[in-house]
Amino acid sequence: MSRRSKYPEQFRRDAIELVNMSDRPLRQIARELGVNHETLRSWVNTAKRAAEAGPVEDPAVADEVRRLRKQVAELQKEKEILRKAAAYFATEMDR
């Protein structure tokens, strides 16, 4: 059973940003926010690890990106063929 945090997600994000942008000690910021300093330290460390790990890539999204890139390449080839055909027929009509 997971324990639900009493702090909203946006509050945590704002507190982490405040710690990262401020020159003040973490303990002072925690005191001003009314949060236990170890709780705030935990939020900051968790956010730092998540940032270092980078985005988690979903295999379904990666497959979709590959499929769409292939489709874009095919459409670009078709467009180039049609452009050349239009240029060819334009010169034929001028004769």
Please name the CATH architecture of the largest domain. Answer: Orthogonal Bundle
The secondary-structure element order is: HHHH
Largest sheet: none
**Rough outline:** rod-shaped
Give the termini distance in whole angstroms. 81 Å
Relative strand content: under 5%
CATH topology value of the largest domain: Arc Repressor Mutant, subunit A
Spans of at least 5 consecutive residues with low confidence: none
Secondary structure tally: strands: 0
Helix content: over 70%
What labels describe this entry?
RD_transcriptional_regulator; mainly alpha; 2 domains; Transposase_8; Homeodomain-like_sf; transposase activity; Arc Repressor Mutant, subunit A; 95 residues; Transposase
Short summary:
This is Transposase. The chain is mainly α and 95 residues long. 78% of the residues lie in helices and 0% in strands.
List the helices and strands and how they pair.
Layout lengths: L8 H13 L4 H8 L3 H17 L5 H36 L1
Pfam family, one: HTH_Tnp_1
InterPro entries: Homeodomain-like_sf, RD_transcriptional_regulator, Transposase_8
Organism: Amycolatopsis coloradensis
Any overview of this molecule?
One of its GO terms (molecular function) is DNA binding. This is Transposase. One of its GO terms (biological process) is DNA transposition. With 95 residues, the chain is mainly α. The protein has 2 domains: 1-55, Orthogonal Bundle (Arc Repressor Mutant, subunit A); 57-95. Helices cover 78% and strands 0% of the residues. It is built from 4 helices and no strands. The protein has helices at 9-21, 26-33, 37-53, 59-94. α1 packs across α3. The longest helix has 36 residues, at 59-94. The termini are far apart.
